[in-house]
Amino acid sequence: MDGNRIPGQAGLARRLVLGFGMQGVSMATLTLLQLLTLPLCLSAWGAGVYADWLVLSASAALLGVVDCGLSGCLGNGLRNAWARGDDAGFRQILRTGLFVYAGLVGVAVVSLVGVTAVADLPTLLGVSRLERGGIVLVLLGFAVILLLPRGMVAAVYSARGEFNREVGSILVMSAGQLTVQAATVLAGGTPLHTAAAGLIAALAFGWGGLLWALARHHPDISLSPGWPGWPELRRLAVRLPLYAVPPASAIVLLHIPVLALGRLTSPGELLAFTTMRTFTGLIRQMAAQFATAAGIEMAAQHARNDRAGVAALLSRTGPLTGGMIGLLAGLAMVIGPGFFSLWTHHAIGFDPLLAALFLGAVLAMAPANGATGLLRFIDQPGPMARCLLAQVLCSLLFCLLLIPVAGAAGAIMAIGGAEVLTVGLYGGAIGGRLVGLPMAPVVRRTYAVALPSLCLSFGVAWLVGWVVTADGVGLIPFTVLWGLLVAGPALLVISDAHQWAWLVRRFHRSCRLRLRL
Fold it and tell me: How far apart are CA 224 and CA 97, in angstroms?
């Protein structure tokens, strides 16, 4: 392999900007589509049927645990092999993965059809208002199972320093699926029609788009399965239990609260939880996506034993994400009531307590974002697996205790509290210790940036509210004016000495260039 093709420190800032920028575009697009889908389904199907649809969708998404950690294990293997310059190992991992996935997908499809044929799963899940729920569940399940190998194949991009392309392929798949489903609902389609359309779109945009793009950008990649040797299978069998924990825990933590609320409370509590999670999810996703872009770079540096580079990037990730979270959280709390009125057509009101609980959990996790991003992408799955197992167990316990008492607020406290206690505190400490970086200074700097950013954002938004009302069509000029007023002060608050030095150097270079011209 050509060593110049291995991503290193050169171009690090560009790759981070491209990766985070593409994630921002993806996040904004998908959030907009999700925001549009909710009122469409509510008005077309009614709250009861839509609540049943959410339960079936969450149940189908749980089938993602069938992956058993293969995507993470093989994806990290691809990234580490390419970072080390091991082209033969890179291609062998890809062939082995395709072979294992072929058998896994076949078994999962047969099992889903068989279980659905002998058991009335919708009734067991409490679904009573949606017709032909069993078929809907099968179609939604197929959309999950048939896309399982896609994550490993798409990791070819991030392995070769093109994380932005990997994110772009996910955007095409998800946006295409959501758009087709929304169009089906608009055309008068039932949940059954919508599930079928979503399956077709997932295959067309998910697999079709990815295979076309790979053939164009990396024609040297061969997607033919290869029989793995017994040593490879033994290695996978030993490592998969640890790698299975992160994706399985993410699926469980995302959908178990929905299933618990649907079973233990009213449709109103379920809709309040899901709508507020969607609204505040934009901020959580932005922080997570920046940590992902930084984590992939740190993992590549870690594979090259560049501990100083990892520590430098890790120490800056927390304050940067904390500042972004603070700015967006302050804005969200002010525009929330007007946004909900426009979004749900007054069907669901904005609950400041639920919003504050969601945003508080995101803010509390900010110092650990960089450390957990690093742990997710290095080829050492044990520490992250322990953190996430503890998080899942604590979340399930807290949900059983708090949801019957506090409904949606209890679910948020259960999930957020468990995350902070396990992944936030324990995971952050492990990540820092891995590269010899004390996390206490990172925590202090993160909150020293996040809390002033929150106050600044809320204060500016409150002042802008005296000029433009944050309601209806006024939301657009309100947000634009807020952005213009908060941009300068936010730059002062978020930037540290290293970033200011970089900005000054860029400014001097630009001035010298103008003088020459």
Answer: 10
